[in-house]
Design goal:
Strands 1, 2, 3, 4, 10 and 11 form a six-stranded antiparallel beta sheet that branches. The chain has a five-stranded antiparallel beta sheet with strand order 5-8-7-6-9, covered by helices on one side. Helix 3 crosses helix 4. It has five helices and eleven strands. With 280 residues, it is α+β, with helices and mostly antiparallel strands.
């Protein structure tokens, strides 16, 4: 699938700032099943983008603006050739061993209820891959996905469980918390999913490391492992570590559209085996 993406983010400053700095994780990298055909970043006010790589291998850009800064806007736009790998991630930039992703953060720290949930999953399935699929399905069935608010920070896992619902980022926090409690390395991922209704194209999901397979993606809100309709942006320990834009602005607008650029020319796909079968 050729996925076309346009993601626009605006951060506003009230009152206007005399200087503002922003950090962006809005540039995907190519790996097995994901080839970046073209990708551009455009920022307002006009500024020089400083490119670097963070500790997790993500492409990061930063820029600053001086004077009277009332707002900063970033537009990321491009096309990606994506293939279905049944959620298995290979050839990505890996700077740490999987064991690092056993580390809990303030956003994933489990409480007694999450430990009980993890124990329930462990009793239901014995193998790591089976446990991860059971965890994804269980969270999907118990916690409906809520729409994300650009001005609201993703809640910690324990608060998501208490609320009974969560955004894609918050459901991923819950997945990470339970998976790490089961001693399975897991991390947060940001990206896009091409949809017929592209209003919620930006989303976050989880990846967990399975012995003998490697990193596998799990989207609890959609109840599936990422397919050829997904574009992977960044990976980190939690939602804060993969945020597409960080600044000192007090209000934000976030609109992303992702669509299949070749949809009209593509014939209907034949029936496929389940993702779990193909991962094994």
């Amino acid at each position: 699938m050729r996925v076309r993406v346009r993601h626009e983010i605006t951060h506003r400053f009230e009152p206007a700032a005399r200087q503002a700095i922003a950090t962006l994780r809005l540039s995907p990298r190519s790996h097995v099943g994901q080839h970046i055909l073209r990708w551009t970043l455009d920022v307002t006010p006009d500024a020089r983008l400083m490119a670097e790589e963070d500790a997790f291998g993500n492409l990061v850009h930063s820029f600053s603006a001086e004077g009277t800064v009332e707002a900063m806007t970033v537009v990321a736009e491009g096309e990606v050739d994506a293939q279905d790998t049944t959620g298995i991630v290979a050839g990505s930039a890996e700077r740490f061993p999987p064991s690092l992703f056993l580390r809990q953060t303030m956003l994933t720290e489990p409480d007694e209820t999450i430990h009980a949930l993890a124990a329930e999953i462990a009793a239901e399935a014995k193998e790591p891959l089976a446990r991860l699929h059971a965890l994804m399905v269980g969270l999907h069935e118990r916690f409906p996905e809520a729409a994300a608010d650009a001005e609201t920070t993703a809640l910690p896992a324990a608060k998501v469980l208490a609320a009974g619902t969560g955004t894609s980022a918050e459901l991923s926090h819950l997945f990470l918390s339970a998976a790490r409690a089961l001693r399975i390395p897991a991390r947060q991922v940001s990206g896009y999913a091409a949809q017929d209704d592209a209003s919620a194209a930006y989303r976050e999901w989880a990846e967990a490391h399975v012995p003998g397979i490697g990193w596998v993606g799990f989207d609890c809100g959609a109840n599936l492992c990422p397919t050829e309709s997904y574009v992977r942006l960044a990976a980190g320990l939690d939602s804060h570590g993969v945020a597409p834009m960080l600044s000192t602005g007090i209000s934000a607008q976030n609109k992303a559209v992702a669509c299949d650029a070749l949809q009209k020319a593509r014939p209907a796909s034949p029936a496929k085996q389940s993702q779990k079968q193909r991962q094994q």
